[in-house]
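Memo subject: From amino acid sequence to discrete backbone structure tokens
Action wanted: Derive the backbone structure tokens from the amino acid sequence.
How to read it: Take the token row as a discrete description of the fold.
Attached in line: The record itself begins immediately under this heading.
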Amino acid sequence: MIITIGRQHGSNGYLIAKGVAEELGYYCLGKEIVDRAAEDSNFNRAVLASYDEKRVSPYFSDAPHYLGMGEGFRLSTQIAAAQFEAIRNLAKEGNAVFVGRCADYVLRQREDLLRVFIMAPLDVRIRTLMERRDLTEEQARKLVKQVDKDRSGYYKYYTDQSWGDLNNYDLCVNSALTGVEGAVKAIVLVARGLEKAGAD
């Protein structure tokens, strides 16, 4: 099956995604989506990475357009299209955990999809970033708000839905309560239950 994980910055979403993938024997795909998009499109990886999960720029670009797109499309829109196509192609290759990048929306038509959102209180996420990246409280607070704003804007632009809205997910986990290990166990439990139900 396919698991998608949206996450607030500092909620340990990537560590949880990696743990789920390891427990289930799945691929964990985050930055790998950017790598695949670079392989399959006319964009180099540095350009793709610079637009990764960023709010859409209001400016247009004269840069080469993504496959078949006409004049006037924003460069950011072309890059997102390349990433979404990479997500679809990677999903065809088998069991995987996708991290962010609107994967829950891109793959929404699949019947084997489990959509997860990882959250945590702001003060916990700030402390996490302070420890992980050796930041001051002010720096960590600014970073959390900026990254979440980027992810929210990116998601809203390409899906016309609200990032973090509980109605868009099958399972929401507060990692401050569960810890990384507990979150992994919860997601794996649900995933295995769905796998069994599908097999039956």
Summary: Strands lie at 2-7, 27-29, 96-99, 113-119, 171-174. Confidence is low (pLDDT under 50) at residues 59-72. The domain at 2-199 is CATH 3.40.50.300 (Rossmann fold). Residues 130 and 139 are 8 Å apart (CA to CA).
